[in-house]
Amino acid sequence: MDHDSYLRAIGLPDYADAASDAARRGASLVARPPHETVSLETVEDRYVYPVPELGEDGTCGVGLADDPYNLAPICGLEYDPERLRDHPNTARLVALQSTVESLAAETDPDWLGVYRRATNPDGEEVLVKEAYVGEPSRAEFPLTESFAERSNNSTVGLSGDAVLVESVDDYDGPYYECDDSVQSEFCCPVLAGGDVVGIIDAEAHEPDFFTEERVLAIAGACGALADSDLLTPPRVEA
């Protein structure tokens, strides 16, 4: 799907036909999985990350949880770092992280992450964070109507429509707060064949941060991710 068609498909028709080449630049930042065997440190960095302690109502609490989040189970894998060093899913996660870092350098938000639509080991359909830059944040967002009432990520994951929050203080829609420094947000779906297979979420500590150039770059990356296999874990045992 071309960039303008993609922008219309995700509910951003006002950004289609822009003179800017930012969407093309964003698309060019989507990386390819490496072929080489990675280090044990890289395996740990790509699979395991700290998360906030969640309250009984699912909100972010104060401080980090005792146990970090591990992506291996939701990818259908056993966490065996040595065996995962040359696993294709590890290469996929490395490429996703490279993509996020490049896109963050291009758009300069305070936080940016890629979430994949998945079914967790408890049988719940969620958006799971697979790569990010910024402070620790929630790992899974439930894809339910009830959770979407307070979460942009879940709303975008269910609807397939992008959401731009120019000012958190003035926003009346669903919003999940994990960092009270955040003042603006852009959440964009990865739409493949009419299905939401993931999202990119970006946040900034200042209002009106997400200019046309930044929105287009992030949407361009989403379109390129939709055409890639980076949100499809390989069906290979560890």
Automatic annotation (TrEMBL):
The organism's taxonomic lineage, starting at the top: Archaea, Methanobacteriati, Methanobacteriota, Stenosarchaea group, Halobacteria
Classification via InterPro entries: GAF, GAF-like_dom_sf
Organism in which the protein naturally occurs: Halobacterium jilantaiense
SUPFAM superfamilies noted in UniProt: GAF domain-like
Coiled-coil spans in chain: none
Sequence ranges assigned to domain GAF in this UniProt record: 95-215
Domain of life according to the entry: Archaea
Pfam family, one: GAF
The protein's name: GAF domain-containing protein, putative methionine-R-sulfoxide reductase
Gene3D superfamilies: 3.30.450.40
